[in-house]
Write a structure and sequence with these properties.
It is built from one helix and ten strands. The longest helix has 7 residues. The strands form two sheets. The protein has a seven-stranded mixed beta sheet with strand order 6-7-8-9-4-3-10. By secondary structure, it is mainly beta. The chain is 5% helix and 29% strand. The protein has a single domain, classed as Metal Binding Protein, Guanine Nucleotide Exchange Factor, Chain A (Beta Complex).
Length: 148
């Protein structure tokens, strides 16, 4: 895998929102929760954790909408014009930001390292037999391999 060119860039489908990441991504995972299924219309979403302070919206800040589920779940950010999913943040610590990998322009230089919420995987989209660690609920960071 090649090292990503920094800053990494990305954006929404309509081009109204553009962002950049000033540091490499820290890790990535597949999420099979029902919320991600409904949010994306797919069986799984793929997100990558950013280094604190490395994310910056460079265009379209006024188009970034958010949805807070209000139950301690992560706050979802999207383009209010085209609906593209952009990132998610921890409601208690917005510095914990995970980018939606599909919103990136180029290869980020990392690959997903685990599956979380596998107990909720869609029956029509089973969890891949890829050898990655699986977590029935939210990922247990203490159980991750050191190279995650």
């Amino acid at each position: 895998m090649a090292e990503p060119t920094l800053p990494m860039t990305g954006g929404c489908m309509c081009g109204g929102v553009r962002f950049e990441l000033s540091e490499p991504l820290l890790g990535s995972l597949f999420c099979h929760c029902k919320r991600c299924q409904r949010r994306t219309g797919t069986g799984v979403s793929t997100s990558a954790l950013t280094a604190p302070g490395s994310y910056r919206t460079v265009a379209g800040e006024e188009l970034v909408g958010t949805w807070d589920p209000g139950d301690g779940g992560y706050v979802k950010a999207f383009c209010s014009r085209c609906g593209s999913q952009l990132f998610t943040t921890n409601p208690e610590n917005p510095e914990i930001l995970a980018i939606r990998m599909g919103a990136l322009d180029d290869d980020p230089g990392i690959r997903p390292g685990a599956h979380q919420f596998v107990d909720y995987a869609a029956p029509w989209f089973p969890v891949a037999d890829d050898g990655l660690p699986r977590f029935p609920e939210r990922i247990d960071a203490a159980a991750l391999p050191p190279d995650f």
